[in-house]
Amino acid sequence: MQELNQQIPEGSRKEVMAYLEPFMLNEMSEYLKPVEEMWQPADFLPDASRDTFFQEVKELQESAKELSYDLVAVLIGDTITEEALPTYESWLTMVKDVEKHEQGGWMKWVRAWTAEENRHGDLLNKYLYLSGCVDMRQMEISTQYLLQDGFDIGTGNDPYRNFIYTSFQELATNVSHRRVAGFAKRDGDKLLAKMCGVIASDEARHAKAYMSFISKALEVDASEVMIAFEDMMRKKIVMPAHLLREAGQPQGEAFAHFSDAAQRIGVYTAVDYVDILKELLREWNIESVRELNEAGERARDYLMRLPDRLLRLADRMRIPDKPYSFSWIHAR
Q1: Which of 33, 133, 237, 277 has its CA 20 to 30 A from that of 203?
Q2: pTM of the model
Q3: How far, in Å, CA of 141 to CA of 146, rounded?
C-alpha cells in the first residue's frame, strides 16, 4: 500500500486509471460474459416462425392484463431508461484520463458493457409491444426525448465520480428490476418475472465491476476518492432518466410521476436509496480507510453520518396515493 502511494501522486487520475487498467482487463471475464454464453431477447419471447406464435402472444397479453397500473408504469419507465443506452455509452467514453484508442482496455470495457446492457431495452421493449397494453408511439416519443435531452448527473468527466455513480446506479437498477420481477410473479406473469430476473442479475454483476474499480482506486488515491464520494452524495445520486417526459411536457415531469409510482408500490424507495449507500460504505470499508488528508477525513466523517440523516428525511416523505394517468398506457 505505502509503496503504491509513493508511486502514484495523490490526486493523479491519469496514473490511477493506468494502474487500474490491467486489473480491469484481468477481471473482465468475471464481470462480463462471452457473447455466445449470454441470454438474448429471443430466448424469452414468442417466435414468429412457429405455428404457436399467436397463441403465445395471446397468453402473454392475458398475463400482462393482470399487472397493476403502477407496475406497468414503472416497467415502461424502466424500459425507457434502458433504451437511453447511447447516452450512457457516450458519457462513459468521455471519462477524463482514459486512453481513448480503439483497442485500449477502457474502450473495450465500455463497448462490452454496452453490448450486455443493450439486451435489456431490446427485451423489455418487445415485451411491451406484444403486451398490447402500451401506447407504443407515446412511449417512443418519451424515449426519443430522453435521448435528445441527455442528462446532467453531476459526475463531469471525472473517473472517480463516474465509477461511484455507476456503482450506485447499477445497484439501484438491480433493486428495481428484481422488485418488478417479484411483483410480476405475484400477479401471475411468470414470463415477465423471468425476464426482469435475468436483467437484475446482469445489473448486479455490473455493479460488482464498478465497485471493484473504486476499491482499487482507494488503495492508491484514498483522499481524492473519498472527496469524490462525498461530493456525489451531497449532490444526491440522480437517476439517469431524471429528465424523463411525455409529449408536450417539460423535462422531468414524467420522471416525478414514475418515481411516485415506484415508491407507491415499493419497487424503489427512499429507504432503498439509503440501503444502497450503506452497501457502498460497507463494500469500500469507508469507516476504516486511513492515511487521508484533512479534506478526506472530513469527507469520510460526512459519509458515515449520512445514512441516519437520510433515513430521517425518508420518514417524512409523502407519496401521492392516487396513480397518475400516463399517456403511455392504454385505458383499462
Answers
A1: 133
A2: 0.93
A3: 9
